[in-house]
Amino acid sequence: QLQLAESGGGLVQPGGSLRLSCAASGFTLDRNTIGWFRQAPGKEREGVSCISPSGAVANYADSVKGRFTISRDNAKNTVYLEMNSLKPEDTAVYYCAADPYYYCAGPLYKFVLVATDFASWGQGTQVTVSS
Fold it and tell me: Which residues are registered as beta bridge partners of 7?
């Protein structure tokens, strides 16, 4: 059974940092594009970042560019989202998703991440940014 599990969420003050992890079981991530999404209460799910299967290409939503960094360790079957300079508007449930066919275009291209194109999802981890 293909499973993704996010971890690392929590409560942090504005300006603080968190590192989210997305671990896979039942399959290997190294042939999958990984996307990070988030959903705040009353809002639609939005794409945050994506990374190519090799890790060579990554892209970010404008709202997190320069503050968030996506990376992957295929040997550990895990993808990370390093979040710095957190703002209250970053508060949301964060989800990772995997798909073997999705193409993560690099930073020269407009960032677009379509949730319905991803086949496998985690259950989400809550990130709350508040003083």
Answer: 21
Classify residue 1 by burial, with Cβ atoms within 10 Å: 0-12, 13-18, 19+: exposed
Q: Read off the pLDDT of residues 57-113 as tens digits, 9 standing for 90 and up.
A: 999 999 999 999 999 999 999 999 999 999 999 999 999 999 999 999 999 999 999
Residue at token pair 């949301």: 92
DSSP 8-state symbol, 82: E
Identity of the amino acid at 69: T
Distance of CA 89 to the CA centre of its chain: 16
d(CA 127, CA 99): 24
Alpha helices in 9-119 (DSSP H): none
Confidence class of residue 1 from pLDDT cuts 50, 70 and 90?
low
On the 0-12 / 13-18 / 19+ scale of CB atoms within 10 A, 32 is buried
Torsion of the alpha carbons at 93, 83, 19 and 26, rounded to the nearest 10: 60
